[in-house]
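[job 4417] fold queue: 2 targets
>>> target A
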Amino acid sequence: MDVQILSPEVIQDTNSAPTPSSAIAADLIDSTFGTTCIDLTSSSLDSSVLACSDEWFAPASNLTNPKPPIRRPGVFVPTGAWYDGWETRRHNPEPYDWVIIKLGVASGKVKGIEVDTAFFDGNHAEAVEVQGCFEVGEDADTKVVKKDYTGWKQVLGHQGCGASRRQAWKADDEREITHVRLCMFPDGGIARFRLYGQVVPVFPTSIEQEIELSSALMGGMVMSASEEHFGSSKSNLLLPGRGVDMGGGWETRRSRNPGHVDWVIVKLGARGRVKRIIVDTAFYRGNYPQAMKIEALDDGEGSPDPEDSRWKEILGLQRMGPDKEHEYAASNLSNVEGAAYTHLKMTIVPDGGVKRFRVFGIRL
């Protein structure tokens, strides 16, 4: 049996108004949400589009694609020009079109919303609203898509949208949601929809049960990294699964300086005792790191510096191989017996790509 970590006031207080939203400049979106939130609706977390009012020109499933939207000028499909996004037909008789998405995590708290209208110009959404709800149980998905469902609560009020641009708003909402509804006024197209927030994980009832402490599904976060290049993202390291190609990991540029290393710092979803670690180089065959080592510290809610003197080595330098899960059992680790940690730092030598970083243990 699993237990959802929820406070009674959160469950009951579904009618309270959310914190007023404030706009975020396009060039500040990534820095605003990148180290404190994840995209709760990303398809890489196994979110799902449950229903939509219309998707005549382009499917709503494109909204949750974690990759940046692309353009294919001159390419046509049976319904018209090809677009990488969600596009509905013209002359909507209703006030708005809508799409309902189930989050890719058990539930989450919304901290920001991004609506990207990239390459939609003249056919872009004029405005949006966002609503959320908290529904669990076997019939939750069936319930929220019904027309007479009354559980939707405002997350983002009516906001105008421009053509072919990223636009985002802060929405520091302490209510927990499981589903989200994006309303597009009156019709048109949106390339990507990102719901930035913090995961409220489901932990096993027994604290003695081993869990993946670092997983994004458990609230794990990548706090910082030396760099990220080639369109990769450090947050990919904590995603479920092994991905489908080399594009879904963390990769750094080639180093030309002797002694160079790259690093990444991960905050665990729960303070815990580390039992084993997996470093996966899936799909990295000619660009994996030569070696890596792992350190850890106990820092509560802080964001430790990579040079912090409190880092303790728990895994010495290990040689890496291509396209492989490298697993290190408790017998390979040091400084973990009886110790509790909140953050881990992986250092790769000298550079390269890693697909996943998995830390398993017992939460405290």
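>>> target B
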Amino acid sequence: MAMGADRAIHVEIGSAKAGGGEGGAEGEQGGELEPLGVAKLLAKVVEAEGRNMVILGKQSIDDDSNQTGQMLAGLLGWGQATQASEIVFEEDGQGGWKVRVTKEVDGGVETVRSPLPMVVTTDLRLNEPRYASLPNIMKAKKKKLEKKALADYGVDGGRRLRVVKVEEPPPRKGGGKVEDVDGMISKLKELGAI
């Protein structure tokens, strides 16, 4: 809140048992929600707050799944734009607003437009990070922080996914060097590539 928010909602999820395991990493929720649980929670918050736009990060640092924004848009039935590097609001000529979102893709940039309501996930190039100053940190202490429980929104925080196995990929064979183009062509023929 020291970086500009006027108020905040802190949803405490606790540590509830989840199906599918006997304890430890597989059986304990461990105070974490899966992307679908987060999307359901955010959908309830958006409905309660009466908002028409949600801006989320692209990925979280814990599981790097890049799913919550897309699931939220699906649950709300809203349009979505992912990996935004630029967001521009435009009047639609009928008293409403459209959002133009630009994102970087492999071949350049892609631009999409959608009327509000909309869910947008961001890319690191969307803005310059801001840092909290000491005066703003002091002001943030006076701002409203509403604490709620997951149950207040009627969302089940149980785990539906279980990590079965994590392993490194098999080691790759070493490459070979060739002296010239003719050597490369003969090597490719030998391997059956051409």
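[job 4417] complete. Note on B: Confidence is low (pLDDT under 50) at residues 16-29.
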